[in-house]
Fold this sequence. Notes:
Strand order of the largest sheet: 3-2-1-4-6-5-7
Number of helices: 11
Number of strands: 7
Helix content: 40-55%
Amino acid sequence: MEHPAQNANEGQSISLLEENRRDVIVIVPAHNEDLHIGSTVLKLRSLVDHVIVVDDGSTDSTALVAAAGGATVVSHPINRGKGAALQTGIETARRHSPKAVAVIDGDGQHRACDLPILITPVLDGRADVVIGSRYLNGDSEVPKHRVLGHRAFNLLTRTISGVHTSDSQSGFRAFSPAALEALTFQSDSFSVESEMQFIVKESKLRMVEVPIMIRYHEKPKRNVVRHGMIVLNGLLHLVGQYRPLLINSLLGVALMAAGTVFGTLALSAFFRTGAYAIGYGLLSVLLLVMGIVFGTTGLILHSTR
């Protein structure tokens, strides 16, 4: 049973979005989504005046269907990845100086009717970044293997970015003008959602989560294991870009610890036999020097950033 206060909040959100529908832009990155993009655009256009579909090198009729639905279509000649598509959409939206921008996946899994709830914290000035989380209300029917993967990426992203979310991989988000100016992505792939948490931390943006519902109507277009490896690879690159001190210092400490172990073995052999363990000694020096180099590199890169 829905609570009266919840209904009132939803009504207020719908009214607030209706008042600002001309100043809200929705970005839809899409690659070969002609089966869903039309209905997605039409539902969004019932709520806002301006929908931007970034056709990321589709080989089907995505661009034609989106344009027929009333969206502004920006096309990439080749498939460049979700991060690149979002960057193109954000750069296009900036030219219109909107009060708020939302991004939503083009595969029909997100509900357009959740847009008012998502966009409200931006429009009323409470947040710069809003994440629509499929895990806050527990109503989304998420396959178990996806839940496990999301939990792993939530933990990993939270640990290295320093920003906690319950759904770090959500593609349904909203941004304030301040966030819109701060969003410049290094990631071209699906790790772009994780990169947003690094940007939130560095730019000191206010972030909140709101509950949304998501439905998985069909099998994923991409192998989930391969998809996860793409995100993981992107996260590792993000660590190098945003946390150079962390990754280099960890490597440096590990190398110096190994060097210390081999140095101890060399000294132990000398005191025990009186002979020099040249192999252990050289390996110890090499590892210690490499550890110092990595640590120094991390400090330099951190200072440069």
